[in-house]
Design brief:
It contains 34 helices and 25 strands. The strands form six sheets. Strands 1, 4, 7, 8, 11, 12, 13, 14, 18 and 19 form a ten-stranded mixed beta sheet that branches. A six-stranded parallel beta sheet has the order 22-21-20-23-24-25, with helices on both faces. Strand 23 (662-665), helix 26 and strand 24 (687-690) form a beta-alpha-beta unit. The longest helix is centred in the first third of the chain and has 29 residues, at 51-79. Bound molecules: N-acetyl-beta-D-glucopyranosylamine. N-acetyl-beta-D-glucopyranosylamine binds next to helix 7.
């Protein structure tokens, strides 16, 4: 629970806004609806209800308004037999929905007043909602922003995902080390989801393939499954801003298929049947954290297949229900593969069309080529999925045959283009030869999809030149770019109400659906009165975060310090360790000279490390240990504070972005595909310290690089350095300050009685070769931080830059990303309700 004082403050700030709701609902009606739900749905009363009950009642009251729009949308879409995009993603990082839904219905103030009349505070009530943490990080949050934009823009779209029983683990710290606990987000139900037993799907697994000759003498394949699962759909309504469209997110839960179980029951008895049942239920039990070890590979493949099979069948069911026939399948259906995770949908669609519907291979393939598109989100080799042929053979024997056939035909095309070139064939083949033969899912995607996109200009260029150069030669128009974006509804309007109001007043209220409008505030960047209002809001947001920090960690920090924040997954390429060694540098300077002149700085972190990723966990440990020491060191007079906030998630992010002065975007150039936190920070008026990587580059184009703190090697320089040979010791021996802080990690200064407890980090930066070039960028990073310190002292200049950053973010609206996808990939039409 978050500090009440902080929460109250926001409430009074938000009060003055006057919005005409998209849905007719007065304060009295809302109040009555909430009371009705409390009495008639939750069977409780005002005197007994706790905040959780009030939250539930409010959600149910909102649902009454929502569901009507949902059915209207569905009726309109099916009545007009619209073309829709089906966004397949193993991750949807939705966060909380109450505040977001109220904002999108334009009923936030109505609900706030209604609850106030009942003696309740909407902000406090919102704090009761567990995050829907069905994702790891940027990729999952992007999916959530995209479905918000699709609905806002009035496009027919369905998000398909998994109804994980446990989302991303809940994180806490014990003696500085990460502890993972299950995230039980829906232990006692979730008011936003609707179970749809009428749309259950059945999913086969394992077994063998039989070749059958039919009555016409034509052979075809029949897959005899060894096990069957049942997919139960749960629908979460997705309200577009203004409620002109309410789409759905359909999440599949796995259960045992009773009919199948019955056989087991008859053959082996009750206990075996129960074992089968619980095995089936484990398929949708947990979200796999990124970058974890190989454990559970079979389960993960089954999870992917389970979700794809359910979704593809559901898509085809809707298509057939509208009375359509196969030749127009690609006119009605677009499927977007969010990363390689849902790739198995490709052979699944082929299997259904060829084996079950008995269409010709060529025809079925031509449909698949038109239907599928694929988004690549990373160049890191470990994230490009491969599955062993042996595993495929066991779990999905028919799909393996189909993949072989796709590959056989594809390699003929390669042969035509590069006759006799076996090296290229080996490189492009969907099946990788070697001691263990592997299926390369990314290659299958690129071979099939009509469009393959990267997520920021530089990344998409690297996809063409480094990752898939031959594919780009073979299919010259296939590889494109769609730069990521964020929804301004959640990431400004809802999370920073005071700044949203300032923009309402300054540029008009429709910035919410036309973020380019913020540019109209640019002439005010040098206006003293506007600067003051902008920075007063920042300061209020910092005070709120100060209270949250105190509540969550007990650490006291000052809102006068520079709030310097790095929040994102913990990964060595994102270089939280570079941030750490810079912090150590400042600490050392302060210890050597307690009068060292620096603006007080609070370094804030939020990040989860994949449970199997040792070095990431060591970095968390190190940051916590250094924090303990620094925060309690009287000698440095509170000039430096470090806080690692536990359990980073969407709802915590919403409180951190508005309070940031500095946004840390410091990945090794070429490795951060885009980043989206960078956009959220800037939109809320933080200045970026960053490398020329991912979307930072396009942000610099929009904002002006002079208003950011750009440092470090460029993509070309990184390549050059790696080619000539990088030796971290060169930097270590040539920079005494750097050498001193790295050597510090070998001592027991931060871990009394345990010398070397932090040595792993030093080793990774020296002995193991510093793969992510931290030491090469260290000096330039320190210089950028010195510039931050100098600039911050000039209040007017800082305010001007903060405003310029925020007002220049128009391009990074996810509505723009969606319009790019529509124009270049999906070709949809809008069907908003009247
Ligand atoms: C992440 C990238 C980010 C990017 C998001 C969304 C994965 C595999 N990739 O840079 O690391 O912003 O995807 O595209 O999570």
């Amino acid at each position: 629970m978050v500090n009440k004082q902080a929460v109250k403050k926001t409430m009074t700030k938000n009060k003055s806004a006057e919005i005409v709701p998209a849905i007719d609902c007065t304060t009295d009606q809302m109040q009555q609806a909430i009371l009705d739900r409390l009495h008639k749905t939750l069977a409780t009363e005002e005197s007994k209800a706790n905040n959780k009950a009030w939250w539930n009642a409010t959600c149910y009251a909102v649902n009454e308004l929502l569901f009507e729009k949902l059915t209207d949308t569905q009726k309109s879409h099916s009545g007009q037999d619209t073309r829709a995009v089906n966004y397949l993603s193993l991750e949807f990082l939705m966060g909380r929905l109450l505040s977001n839904n109220l904002h999108n219905l334009e009923l936030f103030n109505v609900a706030q007043d209604a609850l106030k009349g009942l003696g309740k505070d909407l902000y406090e009530i919102c704090e009761e909602e567990p995050d829907m943490a069905l994702g790891n990080g940027g990729l999952g949050r992007l999916a959530a922003c995209f479905i918000d934009s699709l609905a806002t823009l009035g496009y027919p779209a369905i998000g398909y995902g998994i109804h994980y029983e446990n989302g991303l683990f809940a994180q806490s710290f014990q003696d500085g080390r990460q502890i993972e606990r299950p995230d039980t987000w829906r232990e006692y139900g979730n008011p936003w989801e609707i179970c749809r037993p009428e749309s259950i799907q059945h999913v086969p697994l394992y077994g063998y393939v039989e070749t059958v000759i039919d009555e016409n003498g034509v052979s075809h394949k029949v897959w005899h499954a060894g096990q069957k699962l049942k997919g139960v759909p749960w629908d979460v309504p997705i309200v577009g801003y203004g409620a002109k469209t309410v789409n759905i997110l359909r999440l599949w839960e796995s259960r045992a298929d009773e009919a199948f179980d019955w056989d087991v029951f008859n053959a082996g008895g009750y206990v075996d049947a129960q074992v089968e049942k619980s095995k089936a239920e484990t398929i949708s039990k947990v979200l796999y954290p990124n970058d974890s070890t190989d454990e559970g590979k079979e389960l993960r493949l089954i999870q992917q297949y389970f979700f794809c099979a359910c979704s593809v069948k559901d898509i085809l069911r809707r298509f057939r229900r509208a009375g359509n026939d196969w030749p127009i399948l690609a006119e009605k259906v677009a499927i977007q593969l969010n990363d390689t995770h849902p790739t198995i949908a490709i052979p699944e669609l082929m299997r259904i069309l060829v084996d079950e519907e008995r269409l010709e291979w060529d025809f079925a393939w031509s449909l698949c080529e038109k239907i599928f598109a694929y988004t690549n989100h990373t160049l890191l080799p470990e994230a490009l999925e491969k599955w062993s042929v042996a595993l495929f053979e066991k779990v999905l024997p028919r799909h393996l045959e189909i993949i072989y056939e796709i590959n056989r035909r594809f390699l003929e095309t390669v042969e035509q283009k590069w006759p006799g070139d076996n090296d290229i064939k080996a490189k492009l083949s969907i099946v990788e030869e070697g001691p263990q033969r592997m299926v390369r899912m990314a290659n299958l995607c690129v071979v099939t999809a009509h469009k393959v996109n990267g997520v920021a200009a530089v990344h998409s260029e690297l996809v063409k030149t480094d990752l898939f150069p031959e594919f780009n030669e073979l299919y010259p128009t296939k590889l494109i770019n769609v730069t990521n974006g964020i929804t301004p509804r959640r990431w400004l309007k809802a999370c920073n109400p005071a700044l949203a109001e300032l923009y309402d007043e300054t540029v008009g209220k429709d910035w919410v659906v036309n973020l380019d409008k913020l540019k109209d505030a640019l002439p005010k960047a040098t206006d003293t009165a506007f600067q003051k209002r902008f920075m007063d809001i920042k300061r209020d947001n910092k005070v709120e975060l100060v209270n949250i920090i105190k509540d969550l960690t007990g650490v006291e920090v000052s809102a006068d310090a520079i709030f310097d924040i790095q929040i994102k997954r913990l990964h060595e390429y994102k270089r939280q360790q570079l941030n750490l060694i810079h912090i150590l540098t400042l600490y050392k300077r302060l210890l050597e000279n307690p009068d060292y002149d620096m603006v007080p700085r609070v370094f804030l972190f939020g990040a989860k490390a994949a449970p199997g990723y040792h070095m990431a966990k060591q970095i968390i440990y190190a940051l916590n240990k250094v924090a303990e020491k620094v925060n309690n060191d009287k000698r440095i007079k509170d000039k430096l504070k470090i806080v690692f906030l536990p359990n980073y998630r969407v709802s915590l992010a919403e409180k951190m972005f508005p309070a940031a002065d500095i946004s840390e975007q410091i990945s090794t150039a070429g490795l951060e595909a885009s980043g989206t936190g960078n956009m959220k920070f800037a939109l809320n008026g933080a200045l970026t310290v960053g490398t020329m990587d991912g979307a930072n580059i396009e942000m610099a184009e929009e904002i002006g690089a002079e208003h950011m703190f750009i440092f470090g090697l460029s993509v070309a320089e990184v390549k050059e350095l790696k080619t000539v040979g990088y030796n971290p010791y060169d930097y270590y021996y040539n920079n005494p300050e750097l050498k001193a802080v790295l050597d510090w990690l070998d001592s027991d200064f931060f871990t009394p009685g345990q010398p070397g407890a932090l040595s792993d980090i030093k080793r990774s930066l020296l002995e193991y070769g510093d793969e992510y070039l931290c030491l090469a960028d260290y000096a330039s990073y320190c210089k950028a931080h010195d510039a931050i310190d100098t600039t911050y002292r000039n209040k007017a200049l800082w305010a001007e830059k903060a405003i310029r950053n925020s007002a220049a973010m128009g391009k990074f609206n996810s509505d723009r990303s969606i319009e790019d996808y529509v124009a270049n990939v999906w070709h949809l039409k809008k069907y908003p309700l009247a």
